[in-house]
Design goal:
493 residues, 4-stranded parallel beta sheet
Length: 493
Amino acid sequence: MANTPRCGKFHRRLDLKRRITAFLSSHQTLLVILWIFVFAVIFMWQSKSSGVDRYSKFPRLPSRPIPKLRPFAFNLSDFGGVGDGATVNTQAFEKAILAIAKLGKKGGGQLNVEAGYWLTAPFNLTSHMTLFLAEGAVILGIDNEKYWPLLPPLPSYGYGRELPGPRYGSLIHGQNLKDVVITGYNGTINGQGQTWWKKHREKLLNHTRGPLVQIMWSSNIQISNVTLRDSPFWTLHPYDCENVTITNVTILAPLNEAPNTDGIDPDSCKNLVIEDCYISVGDDGVAIKSGWDQYGIAYGRPSSNILIRNVFIRSMVSAGVSIGSEMSGGVSNITVENLHVWDSRRAVRIKTSPGRGGYVRQITYKNLSLQNVRVGIVIKTDYNEHPDEGYDPNALPVIEGISFDGIHGQGVRIPVRIYGSQQIPIKNITFRNMSVGITYKKKHIFQCSFVHGRVIGPIFPYPCENFDIYDEQERLVKMSTSKNRADDIDYEV
């Protein structure tokens, strides 16, 4: 009996241990959740009390090093630049570019724009220069027009494109340059165009808006691996340049309420390439130009030898790729291939009118893919917009030698609309290998007026009667007897 208390105590301890084990087993999930919650609260409290970003305790991946592409390289911050989105960095850009301008005979210099938001007024580039936008770098244009300089009107446009008199310059500008590169790790040049668009709609501006990037009278220009967005007006405007390459560029603007935000407008340029680009804007994705009416005729600089390939474009307001309407200096030897246009008003368009003069010839469209496009192919000869009353209505453009090969798509309402006139007949148009699925079941979905050409092999939809029909071996099957036939053109579609 003397051992009974000790045995009772032992059994009570054993029973307590079993109860604790059972409790822990049955409440294991609850305890785990409670433990995680307590740990998270302690972690957040420590981070907050220390006054630092809680994520700063974890190692961050280093940014890609900026390659040195010129003998001399500078950072914008070396010249007092601050990328906080509020400090105005115009002087920093100007000082850096002035330093590079002195290095032309030594191979030029490179200006690195580091990650950050670099607010600036417009500035000018120099020859033998590389502007490199690092990953996360954003150049922001000041959205107050008082900071934008006024420039003379473009000589091939007369008194001004939107309003008579001087025009605003571009955010990034260059004249009479050689060997200029704008590139990077997909940094951004942002024109902050929202204020400009609003003032334009409310007619509060006294001058023509400026482009985002404009290079004039220059050669050997390369633009690649950057994003251009929200331009006040046309986005990228090479004017009277040669040997220009634009690759891997993304261009963005709202699809609506962003007036005249063309993507790329080669203007009186020769030997130019646009490839591997993505463009979604509030006007034409690409618009090839060469001057406006009598001023373009007098300036006399055509756009020629231009290649556009592997480009994705969306334009709900205008067209994927346009020629004109300002084409008075002439446009020739243009190739557009591997073009995808989706959710757009038009895919490709040529537009002109009496008074333009000039010509559009030797144009090749090859491998076009259309998806949900209202009108696929448009040639329009009554685009009656003129700089002033001094134009010559008898200056008639010539449109001839245009080839379409490999046109495919779905969801197209009107695949073809070619509208010539007695004054401006359209000649020598060729269609081959075309199959476009339509959504608008109207009688005339291949619309023609005063056009003549040929169709080689079967195409869908069936062409209008203005075209000669050839088989796949290019043997004549049927000669057209209605070369001047004029279908009813339904512009509401």
